Automatic annotation (TrEMBL):
It holds the Pfam family Metallophos. Gene3D superfamilies: 3.60.21.10. The keyword rRNA-binding does not apply. Keywords: Hydrolase, Iron, Metal-binding. Residues 1-183 form the Calcineurin-like phosphoesterase domain. Transmembrane segments: none annotated. Belongs to the cyclic nucleotide phosphodiesterase class-III family. It comes from the Bacteria. InterPro entries: Calcineurin-like_PHP, CNP_phosphodiesterase-III, GpdQ/CpdA-like, Metallo-depent_PP-like. One of its GO terms (molecular function) is cyclic-nucleotide phosphodiesterase activity. This is Phosphodiesterase.
Length: 240
C-alpha cells in the first residue's frame, strides 16, 4: 500500500496568483505530476490547502487532486475554511488501507495560527484505537512536538501532551504525519515516529529563530509504504 502525503499548497482564487517565492498552483501541479508517476493507492493532503480561504482556491485544489487518479483525502489547516472545503470534497475521520488504518485529526482553531485537538476529539481517537488494533498512522496539520524553529514551535499543537497521553496505551500507533512546518522532518516521541513534509509551495528554513523562507529548497512530497506491519517513508523533491 502506497500512501503519498502533500501539504501546505496555499492556493489562491487567482490561478496565476503568486506566493512569496513562486506560483502555488503551478508548483502544486508539478508536485502532482511526480505523485502520479509514483502510482499511489491514496493521496492525503494535510492542510493549508488555500491561502485566501476562497471557494475558487478549493475548486482549483480538488480538480488538481482528482487528476492523480486515486482516492484522495484532506484535513484543514490554520489557513483553511472547512465549510468551503467540504462543499468541494468530504472530510473523513478514518481511512481503511487494508492492514493499516489512518486516523485523520482536525487541529484547526479558527483565527489562530496554532492548533488544538480538544478533549472531545481525543476521546473519539481513543475509542477508535480501542476498537481497532491494526497498525495505525495518525495525520494532523500541526506538529505535536518542537521542531527546533523558535517561531514555529510557538504555533504548534497546544495540547500535544494530551495527545501523547491519549496515544500511550495503544502500541499499534506506529507513526504520525503533520503539515504546517513546510520542511522535511523526522523525529521520535517515545516509540512513535513523527514526520513532517515539504510544502508544495514555499519552504521554511529549518532551525530558524524567526520566520524565514528557505530559498534553496524545492517543493516536495512524502511517500509512505505500508507493508505488513512495517512502515517505510521518504521525501522526494520536485524540480520546477
Amino acid at each position: 500500500m502506497r500512501l503519498i502525503q502533500i501539504t501546505d499548497c496555499h492556493l489562491l482564487a487567482d490561478p496565476q496568483g503568486a506566493s512569496r517565492k513562486g506560483l502555488p498552483l503551478r508548483q502544486l501541479r508539478a508536485v502532482l505530476e511526480r505523485v502520479r508517476a509514483l502510482g499511489p493507492d491514496a493521496l492525503l493532503v494535510t492542510g493549508d490547502v488555500a491561502q485566501d480561504e476562497t471557494s475558487a482556491a478549493y475548486r482549483h485544489a480538488s480538480r488538481a487532486f482528482a487528476s492523480v487518479g486515486c482516492p484522495w483525502f484532506w484535513i484543514p489547516g490554520n489557513h483553511d475554511q472547512p465549510e468551503l472545503m467540504e462543499e468541494c470534497h468530504p472530510f473523513h475521520e478514518k481511512l481503511d488501507l487494508g492492514r493499516w488504518q489512518v486516523l485523520l485529526l482536525n487541529s484547526r482553531i479558527s483565527g489562530q495560527p496554532g492548533g488544538e485537538l480538544g478533549q472531545e476529539q481525543l476521546q473519539r481517537l481513543a475509542l477508535q484505537l480501542e476498537a481497532d488494533d491494526r497498525p495505525a498512522l495518525i495525520a494532523v496539520h500541526h506538529p505535536p512536538l518542537d521542531i527546533g524553529s523558535v517561531w514555529m514551535d510557538a504555533i504548534g499543537l497546544k495540547d500535544r501532551d494530551a495527545l501523547w497521553q491519549t496515544l500511550s496505551p495503544y502500541p499499534q500507533v506506529k507513526a504520525l504525519i503533520c503539515g504546517h512546518i513546510h520542511q522535511a522532518f523526522a523525529a521520535w516521541q517515545d516509540v512513535v515516529a513523527v514526520y513532517g513534509c515539504p510544502s508544495t509551495s514555499d519552504q521554511f528554513l529549518p532551525k530558524s529563530h524567526e520566520f524565514t523562507i528557505d530559498e534553496a529548497a524545492r517543493p516536495g512530497l512524502r511517500v509512505l509504504e505500508l507493508r505488513g506491519e512495517k512502515l517505510s517513508t521518504w521525501v522526494e523533491r520536485v524540480d520546477l
